[in-house]
Every structure is written in C-alpha cells, then in structure tokens.
Amino acid sequence: MVTDPELKTLIEKIVLEMAGESKASEEHTPKSKQTDITNHAVSEEVLPDISEILIKKELLVPNPADEEGYLDMKDKTPARLGVWRSGARYMTSSALRFKADHAAAQDAVFSYVSEDFVKENNLFPVATVCQDKDEYVTRPDLGRQFSDEEKEKIKAHCGNPKVQIVVGDGLSSASIEANLENTLPAIKQGLNLHGIDATNDLFIKHCRVPAMDVIGELTGADVVCLLVGERPGLVTAESMSAYIAYKPTVDMPEARRTVISNIHEGGTPPVEAGAHIAELIKKMIDKKASGLDLNKV
Predict the structure, then answer these.
(1) 10 Å Cβ neighbour count for 17?
(2) Mind listing the pLDDT tens digit for each residue in 240-254?
(3) Contact 235/78 with Cβ under 8 angstroms?
(4) For 106-151, how does the pLDDT look when each residue is reduced to its tens digit (9 = 90+)?
(5) Residue 191 and residue 274: Cα distance in Å, rounded?
(6) Helix (H) or strand (E) holding 260
(7) Threshold 0.85, pTM exceeds
(8) CA torsion sign, 267 to 287 to 186 to 144?
(9) 246, 238 contact by CB (below 8 A)
(10) CA dist 238 to 79, 107, 174, 193, Å?
(11) Whole-angstrom Cα distance, residue 102 to residue 52?
C-alpha cells in the first residue's frame, strides 16, 4: 500500500514533469502559434448553454427505424426518451444536461426573488418567521407562521378585501420571476370583468402554502389566491401553482383548496392560467365554497 508521503511525492513528480513538458512544448512552438494559443486562452467566447437545447427536438438514437414516430413520441412528453449511450454509460451530452437541469433546480430553491422584481410588480413584502433558506427547507412549519409585527403589517396593508392575492417564493424563486408578470395581470383583468377589485397584493418571503390560511384569518377575505413556486424537478425549475380557497382558516383540511398546477411555458401558459384562476375565484364567491366542496354545489 502506498503511504501518504509516498503518494504526495509521486503527485509532485507528475506535476513537475507535466510543467516541464508544457515548457518544452512552448519553446518548440512558433511564436505566431504561441500568440494564437494565448489569444484562445483568454478568449471571452463560451460554449452554448446546454440547458437551452430542446430535448424534445433532439434525435440522439442513431439510425432509428421510425424517426418520425420517435420524434412524435418525444414531443408528447417531457421525459428523457431515447438519450442513447456510449458503452454502458450515458452520452456526454445527456450526462451534462442532467447535471445542468439538476443545478437549475437547486438554484431555484436556494435563490431569492429579487427585491426589484417585487417592487416593479407592486407587491407588498412580508416574511414568515424563517431566518434563511436552510431553515425554510428543514422547518416547513416555520414557513406558515408570521411574527406579531408582520401580522400587523399585513392587516394594515390589506384591510378587509373580497379577494386577496398573495405571491410566495415557495420552493422556486425562478418560477415567480418567469411567470408572474403574465399571470397576475390576467387574473386582475378577469376579475375586473366581473366587477371584482383585487388590490394590495402581498409577497411572502420563505412561504409555504398554509401561510395563505393565516392571511385569510387576518384579512377576512372571501377568497385568498396564493401564487407560489413549486418544488423544481429535472423537467423544469420554473413551475408555479395557484392555491385558491374560500375563507381559508388555519389547520383547515387540504381538500378545501383548489389547485392550478404546472403554470409555465411548457405546461399551462401563464396568461391562460390567469384567466382560468379569475373564473374560479368568481365561481367560489358565487358558490361560497372551494376545493372538493365546490364540486358539491
């Protein structure tokens, strides 16, 4: 067995040999070529972003028996079909794409919605009692609680609305920044057509879904609509959902919520989702119910 000192000596020897070969190669390389190499090393060019390649359009299987059928099948699902292989392993492009999508999912969870975005969309910022993202991820119960100070801010800002719209970062800040600017105006436009005014929108930092129940009790709103970032996956890190409830209360059954999920470019388009949400809110107000109860009346 090689000891640690021996291993260290061996590594140092290899590094010195590599450095010597590099220097010798440079000495025997024409100056014009050395210039090209230097310029290439400091070039600002970057490789194309692999995450922007549409997996549905990639034909990775060599010489498929039915190319048209294969692409048609891929077009109907976001699953990673026919990624092919190199020996017993994934192709390099498939492995890199997997890592890129995994990194995007992690970034979506641990990054924050920018303060400028919150201001530009006229959202009033409040926060749950979570102190940071680590606590938010490990203590879901804290993501549904507010301090007394925050509760007073919410009551002062919102008053007693008929419909209270709330935006929460949830588990994907990327989904909020990608979808809200198209979804929120569509909701408000739809509500205005029904003579319903929804103003004084809130933004909740470190938000879990049941935080909307606290908002419901504090404001006495007939309907609370929470637009929140969903847990990201390897298909997309930009999926947003709408949780809507008629007169929500703390610890109420989850069956009282109505959910519109997969709001993103590759799912339910944000504008379409916004129009549908507005119709649902109007129906809840008329029927005085939400969730499973809405189907009974």
Answers:
(1) 10
(2) 999 999 999 999 999
(3) yes
(4) 888 889 999 999 999 999 999 999 999 999 999 999 999 999 999 9
(5) 10
(6) strand 257-263
(7) no
(8) negative
(9) no
(10) 16, 11, 5, 29
(11) 14
Nearest CA-CA partner of 97 in 59, 64, 54 = 54
Residue pLDDT, tens place only, 255-295: 999 999 999 988 899 999 999 999 999 999 999 999 999 98
Dist. CA 242–CA 264, nearest whole Å: 12
Q: Output the average pLDDT for the chain.
A: 86
Residue 244: CB atoms within 10 A of its CB come to 26
Identify the helix (H) or strand (E) that includes residue 164: strand 163-168
Contact 171, 230 (CB under 8 A): yes
Q: How would you classify the pairing of strands 85-86 and 89-90?
A: antiparallel
- Strand partners of residue 228: 168, 241
Helix axes 270-287, 173-193, angle to 10 degrees: 50
The residues pairing with 259 across neighbouring beta strands, listed in sequence order, are 243
Residue 216 sits at the vertex; the CA angle it makes with 215 and 222, to the nearest 5 degrees, is: 140
* φ and ψ of 124, to 5 deg: -90, 115
- Copy the structure tokens of residue 26: 């440079």
Token digits of residue 54: 């549409």
142 neighbors 135 (Cβ within 8 angstroms): yes
